[in-house]
Specification:
The chain is of the alpha/beta class and 172 residues long. It has a 5-stranded parallel sheet with strand order 2-3-1-4-5, sandwiched between helices. Helix 1 crosses helix 8. The longest helix has 19 residues.
């Protein structure tokens, strides 16, 4: 019998999936897992290094495998990398899971990340790149999600409570 994640978080880079994911796991009394962390641990190098050394297609293949493994073997809160939803097979695997899309607008992304951190897809003209990424991904996040929770101007605790409310989950 395989495990099924209690909650799967999707959304853009910098939205707070890791922070909110850890808080949700704590509130629910379950484990937390991040597929980006899984990739870094398995590869022994950062995601930025994988992008530089092997390119985005190689990273996306690693990401697809990491998501598949985590969906099959983790029963806590699972955070996916921002681009995981780009893969059609991954989107199909998410069907039937309690997927929550954490959303934010570009102004919030600028406040949170400065859009100048080590994000390989934002290396040149980060504001424009972020907007383009969101135009390409927003509908995919919405497609896989059973709930959308806006994070703009909210604390991680407020977002966590909104996710719990949206999914009608109780704390342990």
């Amino acid at each position: 019998m395989s495990a099924v994640p209690a909650i799967v978080l999707v959304g853009p880079m910098g939205v707070g999936k890791s922070t909110v994911g850890r808080l949700l796991a704590e509130h629910l009394g379950v484990g937390y897992r991040d597929t980006d962390d899984d990739i870094v641990a398995a590869q022994g190098r950062t995601i930025a290094e994988i992008f530089v050394d092997e390119g985005e297609p190689a990273f996306r293949a690693l990401e697809k495998a990491a998501v598949r493994a985590a969906l099959a073997g983790h029963d806590g809160v699972l955070a996916l990398g921002g681009g995981a939803v780009l893969d059609e097979d991954t989107r199909a695997l998410l069907a039937g899971h309690r997927v929550v899309y954490l959303s934010m607008e570009v102004e919030e992304a600028v406040k949170r990340t400065g859009l100048n951190v080590a994000r390989p897809l934002l290396a040149v003209n980060p504001r424009k790149q972020w907007r383009e990424l969101m135009e390409a991904r927003r509908h995919l996040y919405e497609q896989v999600a059973v709930a959308v929770v806006a994070t703009d101007g909210r604390t991680p605790e407020e977002v966590t409570q909104s996710v719990l409310d949206a999914l009608e989950l109780k704390q342990r």
